[in-house]
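Worked example 2:
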Amino acid sequence: MPTHENSKELEAYSSKGEEVKKTIDLLTEIVVLLRGLNVHKKRWLTPQELEVEYAFKEKTFVHYRAANKVPYSKIGTKIIRYDREKIDEWLENHEIVGF
């Protein structure tokens, strides 16, 4: 039977795990942003890079892919990549011009 002390330890580990995950997420964003400062931008983007560079939630593109609304490439069953040039073109084609 868990003791009160064990509960506190589990809570501390859980809290530290969340902190570590948040730190890793922030570092990942920083790396992507720093890569974006490079004059030569890479052509093929991961879903995470697309999210950071274009300010779209990754979930949005999951839905768009399922509905065949956005251009992407799939390697095997899990690797998804977006061609920066095609995403730019896709965005331009969906521009709504006000009057």
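The mean pLDDT is 84. The chain has two domains: 1-40, 42-99.
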